[in-house]
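Tokens help. Consider this.
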Amino acid sequence: MKFRTISANTASVATHLADASAITKLGHFLRRTKLDELPQLWNVLTGEMSLVGPRPCLFNQQELIEECASRGVFAARPGITGLAQINGIDISTPRLLAETDVHMLQSLGLRPYFSYIIKTVTGAGRGDRIRQD
């Protein structure tokens, strides 16, 4: 679950391919403050997601799906945030994103888990990049 931050009539594309004008005014605020992730807490409470883990892929992110599948990333529960997110790595670099998720999963312990949450809440990472015209 997520808040809608892009106009309803926008084509379904990866965020880095979306036009900046498609983001609503409220959407800019929600994304900048990362409040657009709040509804995903429901997914955490129902056990579908974790607070920390690899971000779930969208159906149309084929290159990322292939990279993650080949590295076993899908064996882990998806998360709201993780190592890639706090380092500003997004779908625009699918191989690096998948490799970063693998590194995170291999080194994930109690300290890094809470560190990723704290860094996300305090603003680490830049959020999803939007194409600027």
